[in-house]
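Sequence decides. Consider this:

===
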Amino acid sequence: MAITCILLATPEFAIPTAQALLQSPAVTLIGVLTRPDEPVGRKQVRTPPPMAVWATEHQLSLRQPQAKGELAAVMRELQPDVAVVVAYGKLIPPDALAVPRFGYVNVHPSLLPKYRGPSPMHAAIANGDTETGISIMCLDAEMDHGPILAQQVVPLTDTMTRLQLERLLATCGAELLLRTLPAYVNGQCTPMSQDDARATYCKLLTRADGQLDWRVPATSIERKVRAYEGWPGTWCLAPNGKRLKILRLRMGTATREAPGTLVMDDASIAVAAGDGRSLWLDLVQPEGGVVMEGVAFARGLHRTDVLRLM
């Protein structure tokens, strides 16, 4: 008999899991719960999250609980065997945790207990990790704290960006969940408690976190640009005092220039970092402007200009 399941998820990262649940003969997906529509863009147009769009396209029951107690009420109404959580974006309250017979199974993009929290993929790249992975775990009242059902290690290359890693882990997570969920429900998978003494945490990122500091080592800056690709993005202040988005850069050569100094010629533009190394600026976007190559941006600057953080 198929497992009845509700999916609690919000971003595009969850779509491979949603597709896998919908197509699995072992699971009957009876509904999707996601976050409420939110204002997006300069005009603040209320926009449904990606999982709401997906659920509507597939004609699934869609709920977007807002009020206190509403999530538990929906769960009691639908009575799933299990709830699957993928980047839902909120802690599940105790009254809702108690409803499904087999609880809540979460797909988390790190090797727990490392990187509990909302930005584990950003943290893995920014910290220069050589591997990360997926954890399938049972939720409890604490953030990313519950026992682990399965894990899969994924290698991290030194050129991988956050969006590339997100696509990879989204697919790996969906596959690992579908291998794990039936075994768990049938009592063939033993949950293993996490070692809280080894736990590390990552925070909810804001746009301000994307500001670059040219005084730190070049490798740290290069990793941060790859790690913060998409959201929150990375930026600095250009010589005219306006924000300059740094979309892509790469390690350069040795330099004696002070951190933040632009090193330019007719074919390239680099920025000095804090450890005597420079970084080639490959792709940037001036405030209010279009995405352009670094050399195109350099043509509008004086050779003595300095990028400064203010």
